[in-house]
Amino acid sequence: MSHNLPDSLPAPEVDLLSPMLNQQGQVWTADFRGLKLRTALQPIYSISHKRTVGYEALIRAFDNDNSAVLPLHLFELPASEAENLLLDRLCRYLHIRNYSEIKDQVNWLFLNVSPRVVTSGSQSDSFFGQLLEKTGLPPHRIVMEIVEQPTDDAERLRDTVAYYRKLGCLTAIDDFGAGHSNFERIWNLSPDIVKLDRTLLTRATEDRRARQILNGMVSLLHQSGCLVLLEGVETRDQAMIAIDAGVDFVQGFYFRRPCLELDELPQSTMNFEDLLEEYKSSKQISHDPTQLVVNHFSGPFRRVIERLQKGLSMDQACFELLSHHTVSRCYLVDDQGVQLEDTLVSESAVKKQDPRFRPLENTSSADWFRQQYLRQALAQPENIHVTTPYLCVTGAYMCVTLSLAFRQDGKLRVLCCDILANADHNP
Predict the structure, then answer these.
(1) CA dist list (Å): 27 to 68, 102, 244, 266, 277
(2) Which residue, 228, 253, 285, sits at the end of a domain?
(3) Which residue among 85, 208, 258, 409 has its CA within the 20 to 30 Å range from the CA of 21?
(4) Phi, psi at residue 6, to the nearest 5°?
């Protein structure tokens, strides 16, 4: 069955699209340009809850021979903005019709909305409000996903997102971290959920530095007030990376492929117990790598303190510590965070110094109070503190820093020592 498509949509009436939908039992399909459109749902899981918390609705198209047509080809069919708008609304109508038939009264439905539609349509998209009213699906169960890409009308996009939020829906930015995406969109739109692009996960699988960036990005998004969903999880190793990154939700082929048999979804479960047990076990087996550093250097570090308290110079006190092949530098700081003397650099570190970063080498009178390791040491004297790996500003290399506050001639001092993060700490 085909329908003549209007050149424009004078009114976003749900009734305009209703004749394009067909119901067979509890399953709805739609007709568009001789193709049959169906809804596929892919579960979204909360790691902490260990269960499904939502489903992303995806469109699937089939020709007269019931052969699948790529979604990319489907969305190339509209010949005008009006037809593009109609297809977008038809897909949302179909998905909500099908989701309303599922015996699930709690979880979210994630709906994709094209930025072209968002920025060209009415900001108050009254069609969607009519659709929810007609189907009876509560707006708080809808997550409107907006693909992260440039738009010529950022203000209208912001207004549209505000409309969906006012309607009672949640909003999400899709494919964040791909190509042009940046945090400006997060600040402007204040989405409830950010979906990280799968390329971030692919890189994190291959490169440990990319894994650290992924973890940092998740932390920044959480500080921005967003829940984080990592999509494209295809292997068990990637599932473990997602767990370690601290994301809230996961989605991908490893857990469940998009499913056309919608009645099977409520029975779909995923055993997160095994994944979380494996994660806990890996953390227990490896212990805390930074604590291993403290244990290894505790003796030499405290001997430096004893020598300084006896009146020896920094050169004399730090000789043993600087002779270790992983130690790059030692320096002394006062209770205000200001460095007291020139930094002592080990011979091995001198050989590895990169001349491109020479402007950063001289740290005489540098102020380190902003550094957490300095403030921790001042807050808890006599205890050795250690950082997680970070990029050292004096040489642009990855290191961990040991710090310990002690009394010398009645004054509080902090001894700091940088240790190469990627080196072998065995003597």
Answers:
(1) 18, 10, 39, 15, 39
(2) 285
(3) 258
(4) -70, 155
Residue pointed to by tokens 């082929």: 253
Say yes or no: 310 and 262 in one domain: no
Dump pLDDT digits (tens) for 60-96. 999 999 999 998 899 889 888 888 888 999 999 999 9
Helix or strand holding residue 164 (H, E): helix 154-167
- Whether residues 181 and 140 share a domain: the answer is yes
Encoding tokens for residue 43? Answer: 């579960």
Q: Are 75 and 129 in contact (CB under 8 A)?
A: no
Measuring CA to CA, which residue among 89, 90, 78, 79 is closest to residue 28?
90
Report DSSP state, residue 281. Answer: H
Where does a domain end: 229, 252, 285?
285
How many residues are there in the chain? 427
Q: Does some domain include residue 245?
A: yes
Expressed in percent and rounded to 5, the helix, strand and coil fractions of the chain are 40, 25, 35
Residues 395 and 272 in one domain: no
Burial of residue 311 (number of CB atoms within 10 Å: 0-12, 13-18, 19+): exposed
pLDDT per residue as tens digits for the range 327-384: 999 999 999 999 998 899 999 888 888 888 888 888 889 999 999 899 999 999 999 9
**What pLDDT shows up at residue 289?**
62
Do residues 94 and 21 lie in contact, with contact meaning Cβ atoms separated by under 8 Å? yes
Whether residue 321 is found in the same domain as residue 281 = no
State the average pLDDT for the chain.
86
pTM: 0.79
What range defines the domain where residue 142 resides?
14-285
Report yes or no on 6 lying in a domain.
Answer: no
